[in-house]
Amino acid sequence: MLEFLSYGFVQRGLVAGTFVAVACALLGVFLVLKRLSLIGDGMSHVCLTGVAVALLTSTSPVYMSVPIVMAASAGILKITSTFKIYGDAAIGIVSAAGLSVGLLITALAGGFNTDLLSFLFGSILTVSWSEAALCGLLLVVILILLRAFYRDLTSACFDEPFAKTRGVAVQAVHTVLVLITSVAIVLAFKVVGIFLISALLIIPPVAALLVSRTFKQVLWKSVAFSVLSVWLGVFISFVYDIPSGAAIILMNLFFLACSFVWMKLGNNHDR
Amino acid sequence: MSSVIKAVGLRFAYRRVPVLEDVSFDVQRGDYVGIIGPNGGGKTTLLKLILGLEKGEGKISLFNTPLAQFSDWHKIGYLAQKSPVSQSRFPISAQEIVLMGLPQRLGSGVSVGELKQVHAAMQKTHTREYAGKIFHDLSIGQQQRVLLARALVSHPEILILDEPSTALDAQSRGMFFDLLGELNQKHGVTILLITHDTGEVGKHISKFMYVDKTVVFFGTKEEFCHSEAVAKQLGPFAQHTIDHLHNHHGHCPLGEDCEECHHAGGNHA
User: Is B103 exposed, middle or buried (0-12, 13-18, 19+ CB in 10 A)?
Assistant: First the structure.
């Protein structure tokens, strides 16, 4: 039954999927706690512009989308700080702009085609080794930053004003978090598709928050839920020939439901 | 005595509405300053300007270093008015919270020395027994004492506190202000404290700052009693009542010589 693991495209997909799952699970914890979780949704819409430009110019969608999504993330931060509007409103503005431009370019290119649909709904089994290596590199960067600045990161998430009075460069932490997230989002669209990226950033951390008592528990449980969802999702997708992105997210929802039941059974830490 | 916080010509406006104008003062090492004034008078904004959390016009220096160049933040402890996570599910223990008060060291580990410092700070604020508990599960008063431990853990030379006693019960409040008094008198910690709790805190403070869009008054308790500016803002009765509450026995520190007491009808405390 596990013979599907001998296929090269499955191995590439699982390796890349695992790297992306760990990266999104870790970043997601900070985004959820800082109430920035919808940035994944907004940035995924901007991915459409990157993919559309790549298809129009016959270049790599991943490499084309990285600078576009990073620029959009910087735009969200700039709008938030310059015009003093709420972050979710800024995400909504940039997201709408990204989607509109993407659709416009797609229309100019002659309409939708199968390539674009595979990006919308994910095709983990088409990941190349170079893309898998890029996912690994991103994960290494995230792990190094998390290890080196753990206390500053948790402090900036828990109590931003206090962190500032400790000399923590809160704005820099915020900017790096958002920019790294934008790279993770681009790498994740091959795994689950543009429509479902934000779920990878939100569902595992929320499930972990329901069943954890310390911050470190949240991090490793979020990673565990996310990685198991990718592995089981890919397996189910292969066996039953269903879209991998949908299978992965449904597994994430399954773990969320289990966490909710576990919490309701009295294992939560509410007063 | 040396200057630890100096402000010259501070001005701050929110959406073009002036909040503070022409604010200048000089806090000396060892001062215990009670900051009072009406709601919306700019007290919290003033503390945020000192801490660099808001940017206004004018000059601020901490330990004779301009704010922009100041980097010894471990010398300053800060406790805000509101608990940061009262509404959210942030799974973090009280001990981890206190640890945040220490400077970042590379890695996620904690040294034995750091742990000792954390436990000592929690001992001082009577929160040692909550060390392993989730912060979110503590009562608001217990949370506030844990946050005070976080402010104290780096052995600060200045403590800046924004209405810290609001959520505390009467017993905790007494212990809280006694601890601040001890830190100030025994360890020479300079304290800036916004409070409406003028009765309890007054046992220990050495100076008043009255803030209402500007610094209306800044001086000793005795000077407060004589200040015409304060009398204009509060009226002589309230002016004397506040001051007398700060005297251990409820009497004006100026005794028979206080003309204002005679005019206001003697001892109001």
Answer: middle
